[in-house]
Amino acid sequence: MNPRQHLILQQVNDQLRVSVSELAQKNHVSEVTLRQDLNLLEKRGLLKRVHGAAVALQSEDVAVRMMTHFPMKQLLANHAATLVNDGETVFIESGSSNALLAHQLAQRPTITLVTVSGYIARQLKDSACEVILLGGIYQKKSDSMVGPLTQLCLRHVHFSKAFIGIDGYQPDAGFTGRDLLRAQVINSVLAKGAENIILSDASKFGQVHQNSLAPLAAISRVITDNRLSLGYRQQLLSQGIQVDILSE
User: Fold this and answer.
1) Which of 138, 103, 110, 109 minimizes the C-alpha distance to 124?
2) Which residue ranges traverse the bilayer (predicted)?
3) Beta bridge partners of 209
């Protein structure tokens, strides 16, 4: 993809559905050129063409998800990186914001990163830090390790902080995930008693999925953006969870 196509994909992922005319105006190209860009992005499975518009896909691909709200995710990752001290061992779960955090921490050679994400491990192959990729069943759709072997590996590694992604949050359900196997891995992480930190843009709040990430008391901090409603923020604070709100 060229830089314009990256920007088009980010715009579609941010707005979910955008007309061809609006995209052409925003990117200062003709509608003919814009349609050619959309055709290429659709062939690569990155978005869907509909009559007169482009529609975002719900994708498990980390690189695709990273394009949604990218500037905010980068800001969240930069803030999260300031919470990690030199010499620490930290766990980083899969997900786009966590991948950006891993890139930040990878420049610090005294830090050790533990992850279940194949995507993160590959991105850090030339990094300065130590990387531990846990074993398990390779879940192709999410590019991460899951299952009983991954949970067994978690029992034998130790870390002071864990950065975790979520798919949803509602007060009555707590934090939730779409995928059962990934949720089981996260729950094994939460059970280890580290400082557990949720790293997520505010678009996930208000959604609910079938797999609970529990207990809520295991979460120490939430890092998110200023689109988080006051009600959600107050509910999290009432549970003893620190909430870091960032704005662009």
Assistant:
1) 103
2) none
3) none
